[in-house]
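Example (one chain per record):
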Amino acid sequence: MPVEDEAVSAELEKSFRKQGITSHTGARVTGAKVNGDGVDIDVQLGDGTTKRIRADYLLVATGRGPVTTGLNAEGVGLQMEKGYLTVDKQYKTNVPGISAIGDVITLGTPGHPQLAHVSSAEGIIAAERIAGQDTRPLNYDHVPGCTYCDPEIGSVGLTEAEAKARGYNVRIGTFPFGVLGRAKMAGETDGFVKIVADKKYDELLGVHMIGLRSTELVAEATVALQLESTVEDLIRTIHAHPTMAEAIGEAAHAVHGAAIHL
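Predicted structure:
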């Protein structure tokens, strides 16, 4: 999970091991051949050694690219970058009257999220601007991400490493789902919520979670970042019991060294 907080990636690998799943990160497939009722896969591991893996199926996820072929984009003078349409923060191209949103655009910086909910938000801003309404740019730091694996992953905002790289004096708080009564009732106790905050102003910088309902719980964290909440704001927000969402409130307490249920 290269875009997630390192603690989340480590927890997912730990959970996979418990499920009997082996992960080889930093590995490269050098060859694959169908053999009988399976597939033989040659892999170069991260440490440089090689290994042959016998599998029932080989699933290949090669990523996505912009589908702009055949649109005559360059023919009408649109500025392109590796197949992507270059736009500004209001999703205007360099050609008057032509706008673009979603997976086909670049804002001139790497890492534009190729997510349906991002495309929808961009479309609303573009439509409002075309209709003559006031708009404000999308804050891409506040885009929630969801990974529908088992256990689920939800995250929004800066990871601990990203926050440090931007010069923040970071402090974190973590609370495990396994302590919660709701998690025990569901029999899903793996995972945690981790909050990344700025020590100087108590600013909430990022919330990262892995475990049951994480793809739903991240909505609360997204609202908190959008409203420029402090950690204290989350601490003073009452979370119902018994719920999985209690872990968010408890993680906020943990940032201040005051989690009461650990």
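Caption: The two ends are 27 Å apart (CA to CA).
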